[in-house]
Write a structure and sequence with these properties.
- This protein is an alpha+beta fold.
- The chain has 2 domains: 171 residues, Aminopeptidase (3-Layer(aba) Sandwich), CATH 3.40.630; 137 residues, Aminopeptidase (3-Layer(aba) Sandwich).
- Helix content is 23%, strand content 31%.
- The chain has 7 helices and 17 strands.
- An 8-stranded mixed beta sheet has the order 8-17-9-16-15-14-13-10, covered by helices on one side. A 5-stranded mixed beta sheet has the order 1-4-5-6-7.
- A hairpin with a 7-residue loop joins β14 and β15.
- The longest helix has 15 residues.
Amino acid sequence: MTATQIVAYHDRLSAPIVQFWNQTFGEARNALPMTGQLFRQRIVEVDNFLGRFEPDDLLLAVEDRAVVGLAHVGVRSEALCSLMFSDWPGGDQGYVALIVVRPDRRGGGIGTALMDAALERLRPCAQTVVDGQCFNPFYGNCAAPFTPLWGTSEGISVERDDADTRRFFSRFGFEPRFEAVTLQLRLGDRAPAQATLPEPYALQLDNNHQPILGAPLDELMPLPECNRCTSALAVYESTIVGYITTYPLWELAADRQAIYQMEILQKHRDKGLGRALLEGALESMAAAGGAHCEVLTLPEESPGAYALYHKMGFTDTVRWAIY
């Protein structure tokens, strides 16, 4: 058998990576067919406030010029962690953005070799995590709403029932921090309702901006046209006190939609804003030709939102272990 080598990313390996990706994730939930252009756009060319692609951080298991596994890591600076986490104790945070082995090559030690190499690269960091949330700059959608490469509507993750992967992470000391649920709704299965906010709140629709909770209405952050997102805003005295943002999963299917975020300022909750905003979002998605909507939520962290989605007709579809 050809010996397995662990090497760092090089452009000449992009075609074998694309082939590996489609072999490995082709049947995964929400999987986009990988291409060389998409790989460069979504991974190699990433450079935003959450992270920047570094070739040495993408470790590949190669056998006879075929990629059979990969581990992608990154480092968040102490300054960034202090902004992201209010109780950050100090130091840089290393994260495993993705680790996977081709299904027919699992069980032979390739995953262990990749994880050992990944953790060695992150050894100087004060903390190391497996990043299965939307903070993942390469495989999550925290920077902007867009169709995931596979997994949830917020990015890649591990299905709760994937016992093999969970045992693998446990061997290295990583355990799930949350359980998340993908909920789905067929938009045609519910009768349309009027989206009306109680006085003195006003409802406003907006396209391709990122709302900022508690900010003036004129401080919406513009997003690229390719994101195609729509927000329903709850406005009080010219201030955004609540919003829900949706976006089309257009690369998967023309009639699929997803909810990206829903937030309401604490002092404006329990006034019916959430239901009204969700009604407005569902109406807007249906008017845009949407037939299916999905959303990811954390039942234990956001029980109110989870209950609201069920009241509006959403049903549980997949449960995820969030690391």
